[in-house]
Amino acid sequence: MGPRAHRLHELVSFLPSEEASPERVIEWGLPRVAGRLVEISASGSSASLTAVFGLVIDAQRRGEPAAWITLLESTFFPPDVVAGSVDLDRLPVVRTKEPLTAGRAALHLLRSGSFGLVVIDFGIRPRESKKHHLPTPLQTKLVGLAQKHDTAVVVLTEKTRETPSLGSLISLRAEARRVDARHQTMSYEVQLHILKDKRCGPGNIFREVCYGPDGLC
Fold it and tell me: Under a CB-based contact definition with an 8 Å cutoff, are residues 118 and 83 in contact?
C-alpha cells in the first residue's frame, strides 16, 4: 500500500460536525501561525492532513492565497479535499523530488509576497532524519520571508513526538492525533498537542470534532 493509500482515511470534512459544542471547537486558524515556521508531526495514523487543510480553508475564506508543496511519492486525495470544502482551483500544487527542492520551491513562493499560507508536505517517508532535513540556512531564509510577508509556512513531517523537530527555528510544533468517535458515527476528534510554541509556550491541546466522507466507517 503506497503513501497516498495510507493517508486517505485522514482526509475528512474539515468543518466541525453538529456534535461539536462551542468549547470543543479548536482555536486553530491562520492568525495563530501567520509569520511563523510551523511543524506538524505525526506517527502512523493521524489527523495531520485534517489540521493543515483546516488552515487552507481558513486562508481561502480570508482571501489569502495558499499553496501546497509535496514530494512526488506522496499526495492528498483530491475528491476528499473538495468534499472538505477546499477550493482546489485556488490551491496551486507544486511537486518536487526531495525535501531540499521543496524548501527552495517554498522560497520562490514566499519571495513573491503573494501567499498567506505555504504548506510543505514531506509525506510518509523512511525513518531517516535526513529525509526530513531542511538546512539551517534555508530555514533562516524561510523564517525571514515568512515574517516579512506575514505568511504561515507549515511543514508536515512523519515522526514521533520524541524525535527532534526540524530545528531551533521552528516557532511552533504540534503533534496531530485522531481519536475515534463514540458510537457508530462517522465523526472523530482531531487533537493538536502543542509540543513547542515560542509565543505561548508548550502544553496546550486544541480539539475539534470532524466527520468523515461517505463510506469512511
Answer: no
Inter-helix orientation angle 136-149/99-112, to 10°: 30
Q: For residue 187, which of 33, 16, 67, 58 has the smallest C-alpha distance?
A: 16
List the domains of the chain with CATH numbers: 3-9+26-211 (3.40.50.300)
**CA R_g for the chain:** 16
Look up the pTM and report it. Answer: 0.81
With beta carbons less than 8 A apart as the criterion, state whether 120 and 155 touch. yes
Give per-residue pLDDT as tens, 33-71. 999 999 998 876 567 888 899 899 999 999 999 999 998
Give yes or no for a contact between 98 and 71, defined as CB atoms under 8 angstroms apart.
yes
Q: Report the relative pairing of strands 93-96 and 152-158 from DSSP bridges.
A: unpaired
Residue 117 sits at φ, ψ, to 5 deg, of -150, 130
Cell 504548506 belongs to 119
In 3D space, the residue among 76, 58, 64, 140 whose CA is nearest the CA of residue 107 turns out to be 140
Length, in residues, of the chain: 217
Q: What is the dihedral of CA 88, 91, 92, 98, to 10 degrees?
A: -100
